[in-house]
Amino acid sequence: MADLARIRNEELARILHQLAWSPERLAREVNLVLPPGLAISQTAPYKWRDRGMVPRSPHDQAVCEVLSRAVGIAVTYEQLWGRMGSHRGAKALSARLLTDPWTADTAQIALHEAGLQVAPVRLTDLFRGDELARAAQHWSAPPPPLTGGSGALPVTADQLNDLQASCVGKRRLGRACGGGLVLESARAELAMVGKLLELGGYAEDEPLGRALYGAAGRLARLVGWAGADLGQEAAAQRAYVAALRAAHVAGEPQLAVSVVGSLAVQLTYYGAGRGLDPAQLLGSALAAAGATLAPQQRARQLGRLALAHGRNGDREAAEATADQAWTVLPRDAARAELAGLVGCAYLFLDDHKRARPLLTDAVAGLTAARARALLLVRLADSYRRTGDTGRAAAAADQARGLAAGMQSGLVARVLREFDGPRTGGGMQDS
Predict the structure, then answer these.
(1) Could you give the CA distance from residue 108 to residue 216 in angstroms, rounded to a whole number?
(2) Which domain of life is it from (predicted)?
């Protein structure tokens, strides 16, 4: 931290006075939540309070978390550090996440935040209304200038290939074993890519630099997916925003649509957004993407859109969108994933006669254990609701066998809820 003109941090001083904490007490509490080797000195909080200095990451976010827990309400980054000025320490996105300029710099900030083990506590991390739908006009626009990339750390195509392969492997592992198995390693790798973007030398090779942002966006999407699988909705949405911003810098609107589709599935089942309609959100994203999607990509997103329409009870829109998805899907493409999405849409509409054959085909055709377990529970619920208790028990037992040892909060949740009142349709892997 640079030695700057003294500006007392009155907000930090007020909170410490309210808690009757000394700066030394704050240092001790912060050190309890920091990873090993990142402990701060007992005198550091004096500099924050009395000289207006802003700690670097992850200490800045750790202070927010510690004070939020102690006070009992969210203490935000902007509240605590924003008035000190960006020249006094680490930068952060505004609390609403989506309103900052869509630049390479803000993409790096979002990626950095998504990769933190200690994340800020913000009540606004759950999106309002059509904020994400409106964001489509940003991520679908031409990519911004590729600023930065003049660091001394070399970045090569081989390194990029290694990062891309690692992400694919983690994603495959997560689909088999659950998000809990890959979340921390994906976050750590995202933080590593963030360092490459910050310190790397790729300014002379713009395609390589933009591809590096694409790799970061896919890792952030994985972090969001894994977080959602563990029920960490706000953290997942923060990661999805980072993925959208990285996709924009990379010039990959098809990646952005995939991110929006993942979030739409989360919202379809658990409503982790205030006033946000997942069908409207994904419909806006598909319109913004235009013809950039390959046929199989478009079919997948249309299947997710049919699912959202089914959740809304809009039979006509769900059926029309499902028909469109089947028409778009190439004849030689695998059909199991789309069958699962459309089958779950029919479950939301209580059309068990049309849902069950599709779900059965999906379970037979999918290889990822997590998706199969989720669909089997939905299939079991369908059988039970129509009086076929024998097949319901068999499907549920098969799901439990697949779920044994799986690190998926979502799979555990739907299995726990199986004997309770039914609250929704089937769940397809996002």
Answers:
(1) 9
(2) Bacteria
